[in-house]
Amino acid sequence: MSDDELGEKLAERRQELFNLRFQSATGALENPARLKLAKREIARILTVRTEREFAREGINP
Questions:
Q1: Distance between alpha carbon 58 and the CA centroid of its chain, in Å?
Q2: What is the CATH number of domain 3-57?
Q3: How far from 38 is each of 8, 13, 15, 24, CA to CA, in Å?
Q4: Tens digits of per-residue pLDDT, 3-40?
Q5: How many whole angstroms separate alpha carbon 26 and alpha carbon 6?
Q6: How far is CA 9 from its chain centroid?
Q7: Contacts of 7 (CB under 8 A, 6+ apart)
């Protein structure tokens, strides 16, 4: 997946998380586990982005 695609996925997941939090606050959330999954997906995307930045700069974490 390219950097642009990762950025798009990140924006989608953040929007989804916002919507899920809104549903949770209003009591309309059907699948509470989806909140945790959305957070996890965001973390994965951010991890991949960070690893790529380190690789470009030649940093070995």
A1: 25
A2: 1.10.287.310
A3: 14, 6, 10, 13
A4: 999 999 999 999 999 999 999 999 999 999 999 999 99
A5: 30
A6: 7
A7: none
